Amino acid sequence: MRALYSFSVAAVTLALIITPLHAADKPAAQSQASDAVAEKRVVTGHVLTTATGAKLPYSATAGALLVKDKQGKPGASLFYVAYTVAPKAGERRPVTFFYNGGPGSSSIWLHMASFAPVRVPVDVGKQGGAMPRLAPNPDSLLDSTDMVFLDAVGTGYSRALDPQDSKLYWGNDQDAAAFTQAIRRYVEINNRWLSPKYLFGESYGTTRSAMVSYKLIDSGMPVDGVILMSSILNFAQRAPGLDRMDINYLPSYAATAWYHGKVARGTGLDAHVAHARRFAQGAYAAALAKGQDIGAEEREIVIAQMASLTGLSPDYLRQADLHVPPDRFRKELLRDRGAVTGGFDTRFIGSEGDNAADTAESDPADDAISGAIIANFSAYLAHDLGCAPDGDYVVNTPALFPVWDWSHMPPGGPRQNAMANVAIDLGAAMRKAPRMRVLSLSGYYDLSTPFFATEFDLAHLYLPSELRPNLVSRHYASGHMLYLDGKTFADVTRDVRAFISAKPD
User: Is 399's pLDDT higher than 80?
Assistant: First the structure.
C-alpha cells in the first residue's frame, strides 16, 4: 500500500526511457516536444510458462501516457509497464489497470510481488535469510487478462512536464482525473475500446478506483469490473471524536492475538473473528457511545470481553479507557516477548530499541519486503525491459502526503472537505452501469485498512436489491498486501481470475 502509516522508502535510481524535462527548458520547446517525449515506449518480447505448462508469448511495453491540463496542453506523463498477449481470432482479451496507493506510492509493490509474469517471491513465512530473486511467475494473471501497471504523478517515472505543476495532480479529484485521462489514452492508442476493462487498486488505489470508475463510465467508457484490495473508501470514519475506527480495529486485533497465540485458539480463526465482529458492533460500540457515563459494572464486563478477544490485559485496557490505537496495540501485544508486530501485516514481528515505549516506531512488515522488491525492480527495468538510465524511479514520495488535497466532489455533490467518502462514487458507478461488478479483497491481519471498516463502507453503497449480487467480498488470513504468502497468493489469484473470467448475466 504504502499509506496511512508514516514511513520512509528511499527512491531508487533506475533507467528512464523518457528524457526528463527540466524547469530550465524553454516553454515553447517544451510544448513542441511534449507529445514525442511523453509517449515514447520500448517493447520487448518474452515467453511465460504457465502453471499448466503452456507456453504464453507476450510483449512487455514500458512507456508513458500523456495527460493534458485544463487548457488542453500537455501537462504530465504517467509511466506504465504493460503486459499483453496477442489475441486469438475473434478474441477480445480483457485489460486490467493496476496501481498502488499512498497517496504517494508507485505501483512497484503490485507490479513486482503479485500478478505480473515476473514476481519477487517474498513470503511472510520466510523472514530473514537470502534476498529473494525475481523469477517467472507461473501463476500470473496474464493467461486471463492483459495488465497495465500505472504510476501516479510524482511517483515512478510519472512527472509533471513542468516540475512546478506537480501539485496540480496531488489531490483526490486531481489524481482521479489524471488516471481517467491516462486510461482513456491507453485505450485509444492501443485500440482497446471493445476489450473488457477492469480496475485493480490496492489501498488508496481503491479510493482512486471508486472515483475513476465513475468518471470513466460518465465519460462513455464502460468498466466491466473493479477489484478492491485492502480498501479505504470513507475517510470520514477516521474523523477525530468518533469511535468508528476503534470498532473497526477490534476484529483485526482479535485475529492478530489469535495468530500469535495470545488468546485461546480452540474455536479457530474464523470463529474467533466472527465473535469479535459481534462484540465490536454490539457491546463494545454501545460502551464507547456512553463515553464517561458508562457504568462501572458494564465497563468491567466490556473490559473482560475485550481482553479475551485481543490478548491485552484488563489492567492495560482500563488504563487505555477502552481506546487502543493500532501503534499502541502493536507495541503492547508482544511486549512480554520484547517484540512488536507489523502494521501492514501483523503476522510479521520485529524488535525495537526501546521496549518501554508506548507505541511502535517501525513496521517489520514493511522492513521485511522493501529491499528485495526495490532491488529486483531496478535490475528488471534495466536488463529485461531495456529502460535506459536517465533519471530516478521514485518508489515513494513522502513530500506528497502532507500537501495532498483531501477534499472531493462526489457525483451530485456537495463538496466534501478533507474527509472524502468515495463509497458514494462507487455506488453511483454501479447504479449508472448495472453490469459493472465489484470484487473486494481484505486481510484479517491488516491494521492499515482494517477489513471491518471495508465491510461498513460496502454496506453503505445504497445499492438496490437487484444489484447487490454484483458486489462480492472475500476475506483471507493475510495482511494488507495479500500476495505476501504462498497460500493466500494462490487463493487471491484464483478468486481474481474467476472474477475476470466470469461472464455477466
Answer: yes
- For residues 1 and 366, the answer to whether their CB atoms sit within 8 Å is no
Cβ-in-10-Å burial (0-12, 13-18, 19+) of 158 comes to buried
Alpha helix (H) residue ranges in 190-243: 204-218
pLDDT (0 to 100) of residue 429: 98
Residue (of 180, 161, 142) closest to 33 by Cα position: 161
- 244-259 and 451-458 helices cross at what angle (nearest 10)? 140
Alpha-helical (H) ranges within 104-171 are: 108-113
* pLDDT digit string, tens, across residues 70-102: 888 999 999 999 999 999 988 899 999 999 999
Average pLDDT, the chain: 88
- 387 vs 386, more confident: 386
Query: How far is Cα 380 from Cα 398, in angstroms, rounded to an integer?
Result: 24
Q: Which cell is 140 given?
A: 500470473
Helix, strand or coil, per DSSP, at residue 405: strand
Long-range contacts of 158-161 (CB under 8 A, 24+ apart): 158/64, 158/76, 158/77, 158/78, 158/79, 159/20, 159/21, 159/76, 159/77, 160/75, 160/76, 161/21, 161/30, 161/34, 161/38, 161/74, 161/75, 161/76, 161/77
Q: What is the CATH number of domain 12-84+98-237+370-501?
A: 3.40.50.1820
What SS3 class is residue 489? helix
Find the helix or strand (DSSP H, E) in which 476 lies: strand 471-476
Q: What is the CA radius of gyration of the chain?
A: 23
Mean pLDDT check: name the lowest of 28-37, 228-237, 391-400: 28-37
Query: What are the extents of the domains in the chain?
Result: 12-84+98-237+370-501, 242-365
Report the alpha-carbon distance of residue 28 to residue 130 in Å, rounded.
51
Distances (CA, A) of 410 to 10, 306, 495: 34, 37, 30
